[in-house]
Amino acid sequence: MISGRWAWWISWPVATVFLCLLGPIRLYDATGIPLTLQSFGVVLVPLLFGSRIGLAAVCTYLALGGMGLPVFALGTSGWERFFGATGGFLMAFPLAAGCVGLAAEALLVVRPDAPYRMTRMLLAATLLAAAGQTLAAALGILWFNSISGTSDATAWIHLLPGLGLKSVAAGACVAVVDRFSARTGIATGLVLLFGSSSPLSAQTPQNPTMEFKRVSDHHSFARPNEAVVTHLSWSAEVSFATHTLAATAVWTVDAAPGAQEVVFDVRELAIASVSVDGAPVAFSVGEAAPFIGSPLRIPVSPGRHSVHIRYTTSPDAAALLWVDGDRPFLFSQSQAILARTWIPCQDSPGVRFTYDAEVVVPPHVLALMSAENPTVRNPAGRYTFRMEQAIPSYLLALAVGDVEFRPLGPRTGVYAPPELLEASAYEFADLEQLVEAAEGLYGPYAWGRYDLLMLPAAFPFGGMENPRLTFCTPTILAGDRSLVSLVAHELAHSWSGNLVTNATWDDFWLNEGFTVYFEYRIMEAVYGQDLSEMLVALTRQGLVEEIEGMSVDRPADTHLKLHLTGRDPDDGMNAIAYDKGYFLLRHIEQVVGRPAFDAFLRNYFVRHAFTSMDTERFVAYLHTELLNTPELAAQADVAAWIYAPGLPESCPRVMSPRITAVDQTVVSFASGQLSASQLPWDAWTYQERYRFLTTLPESMPASHLEELDTAWNITGVGNNEVLFAWLKRAIAFTYSPAYPRLERFLMEVGRRKFIVPLYDELVESGQLELARTFYLKARPGYHSVATGTLDPKLNMP
Ligand code: BES
Ligand code: ZN
After folding, report:
1. Where are the alpha helices (DSSP H) in 149-227?
2. Is the alpha carbon torsion for 38, 43, 44, 45 positive or negative?
3. Nearest CA to 608 among 516, 511, 517?
4. Dihedrals phi, psi of 586, to nearest 5 degrees
5. Hey, whose CA ends up nearest to atom 1 of ligand 1?
6. What pLDDT sits at residue 150?
7. 753 CB within 6 A, ligand 1
8. Neighbours of 351 (CB within 10 A)
9. Quick check: 176 and 190 in contact, CB under 8 A?
């Protein structure tokens, strides 16, 4: 028989190997770290710290580890995340058993005559450490709940049985050791018990990271299950003269056993050379398909590689918009599948990576990315960036231009062209408060800083949730803070979308529906229910209209779960994902009650942080965690929302007294009972004005518009949402005094949500030639996302 001492040294690796085998099956900790990795800790840490000082260090670590979940959720640096993720409910226990065991062994080596009482004391210390750690975890949960404002029952449910199980196991071991002194076997047993008894890991295999098989994404050629990227080092030189980026992308690639190549997505990139681990390789670029681009295939063997790709972008790169003139500006828009037009990447939202970058620009402009950013200019025009949290490719972003920074709060600020800086700082004065409100709802903000960037008006969207730096249209600078809900929306994406990401563009509603829900909750928390319910009422109106419009020609597009194979994911960017998605979540909230729904959402974000989610897995998770009785499931009937067309009967009704009052005013005004000057226009919020203008009946006399304009100078209004609604009605009634304003708006603004309906209205009201005249003039200033939608409508190039 092997003697005691050597038996210890053999039993540890054996136990570890066993745990390693257990790990990949289905055990993950709360943050998605597979047990396999933690198991290495069982051998490594005791080897490093098999001393009394080590034991003290480990005890401190255990206490910190108890804070695991909250520290993870709060932490942004690598170390915080390491402690949080590995110190959670799981690793501390095998670690404790390991350290205590080794300490016991060390003691017996130093004092072979030490009575087993010592061993027993050490094992009792394990029990104490477990209790201490559980206490620390409990404090952590209390703290987590106090900052998030509610009681999170699920965390307790996971904690308490864990404590019970582990205490019983430790107690039993103490007793057995005392009786038989069979240290080797018992120690092995301890490791196995402590290492595998966590109810949290056993119940939640939803945190797939390394062994996760990604769902296939038909908008990407990449095959990440065979070879996947984990990190990008990007360097680029920006040329405003040629409208190109000359760049090198160095990708860290992990190739699975059997893999022969790594496949990237590219579109209109000129690839100059590719090397793998320093050696040039023969690569191939497949035939280009419309909007998807081509596969770039690079031979690799199994294992980890460094893949260098040197390339140049095309002046027509669809993601990039170059604004010329004395104030040159460049910005990117990668979502949904345009990142591949400026960086060769695995352009699928199910693939995440960290990145660093070095960008060289002309001397008098600032470069910014979706990363840690500079706040001042660098005379040499050389900027470096780091994004430590893993993101999907559609969140890669770059902006270069004459902008300055103004802080708004301890971790919030705004970048804007100098002449807009003051107005931006005023408009977004509540930014820090919005972040705090969001944290209060669904847990700590995970990305460090939250800044805004005011882009040129040609930006095709209202906002884009690039991590750490939301890109914004300047059309939300209304002067009265009335359009901050857009910022609430992009901020909300820091959880829904950026932390938990739609696995494919068919699951887009998981990004946007959740975000609209979260946006309105933030608005409610900061500005009150009166205001947020007005937003909801407008949303319902828009949704019902849009569903009516789609139900005839393309009813399948009104399902939440889409099937966009062979189509541009842009086709899914409509009120279905956003607003039908919103109303499904609001409906579930009504079925289970707000406290239960909030606790569910907070957990959802923590447990799935930095991973992707598809509709089917979400539905399964929803049913195990929340709709877990047949009655609740039947009442919610989520399948009717997700897999069927139209708006289910169960769609919540909205009660907004102020919007109802506007509807009555519309009736009085249209029928002539109320004159334009009698309207409470000045007292109305933008939401009330918007409702008024969008619900004026088509049958109303055209002279009403002139009266409105004379009374309230609506053509000169500063709020762009109201102006848009007004211009649309002006087109429908051919109210020509508004046309010069219309023309100016179409020349200056490139936001698709505004310009597409305006051109549509011109075409539908028989003014196609005028529409084409405007478009020909404005088109060079629009982003490809806008021209891609408008060209076919206006029969252009
Ligand atoms: N992520 C979207 C913008 C987007 C979606 C770009 C799909 C490309 C493809 C962004 O968060 C968004 O929804 N923007 C809206 C804001 C609004 C809903 C408040 C916009 O731009 O209008
Ligand atoms: Zn959004």
Report:
1. 153-180, 183-196, 199-203
2. positive
3. 511
4. -65, -35
5. 464
6. 41
7. yes
8. 22
9. no
Across-strand partners of 247?
A: 236, 311
Q: Which residues of the chain have pLDDT under 50?
A: 1-9, 11-12, 15-16, 18-92, 94, 147-154, 157-158, 160-168, 170-171, 174-186, 188-212
Token readout for 5 is 């001492």
- Give the E-state strand segments of 314-422 in sequence order: 320-323, 329-332, 352-360, 366-369, 382-392, 398-401, 404-407, 412-416
The encoded tokens of residue 461 equal 């969207």
Q: Is 573 in the pocket of ligand 1 (CB under 6 A)?
A: yes
The residues pairing with 306 across neighbouring beta strands, listed in sequence order, are: 252
The residue among 401, 355, 356 whose CA lies nearest residue 381 is 401
State residue 295's pLDDT score: 98
How do strand 450-454 and strand 463-464 relate by DSSP bridges? unpaired
The mean predicted confidence, pLDDT, of the chain is 83
Instruction: Compute the distance between CA of residue 176 and CA of residue 120 in angstroms, rounded to an integer.
Output: 10
> With contact defined as beta carbons under 8 Å apart, do 507 and 561 qualify?
yes
Closest CA to 348 of 514, 220, 447: 220
The catalytic residues are: 490, 578
The reported pLDDT for the residue numbered 127 is 59
Q: Report residue 359: phi and psi, to 5°.
A: -125, 130
| Beta carbons of 441 and 522 less than 8 angstroms apart | yes
Give the DSSP per-residue string, 604-660. HHHHTTTEEE-HHHHHHHHHHHTS-SHHHHHHH-HHHHHSSSS--TTPPP---HHHH
Nearest ligand 1 atom to the CA of 485 is 19
List, in sequence order, every beta strand (DSSP E) within 702-786. Answer: none
Question: At which residue do the structure tokens 């009403």 appear?
Answer: 704
**Contact 465 CB / ligand 1 (< 6 Å):** yes
Question: Are the C-beta atoms of 536 and 520 separated by less than 8 Å?
Answer: yes
DSSP of 132-171? HHHHHHHHHHHHHHHHHTS--HHHHHHHHHHHHHHHHHHH
Query: What pairing do the DSSP bridges indicate for beta strands 244-255 and 284-285?
Result: unpaired
| CA trace torsion 605, 606, 607, 613 (10° rounding) | 30
- How is residue 357 annotated by DSSP? E
What the block records as the tokens of 360 is 């060289």
Q: Tell whether ligand 1 has an atom less than 6 A from the beta carbon of residue 489.
A: yes
Residue of 595, 603, 616, 606 whose CA lies nearest to 510: 616
What pLDDT shows up at residue 639? Answer: 97
**Residue 400 CA, ligand 1 centroid: distance in Å:** 21
Ligand 1 atom closest to 486 (CA): 19
Q: With helix as H, strand as E and coil as C, how does 98-121 read? A: HHHHHHHHHHHHHCCCCCHHHHHH
What number of other Cβ atoms are within 10 A of residue 364's Cβ? 12
Q: What is the pLDDT of residue 122?
A: 56
> Which atom of ligand 1 sits closest to the CA of residue 572?
7
Instruction: Please give the Cα distance from 711 to 548 (Å, whole number).
Output: 34
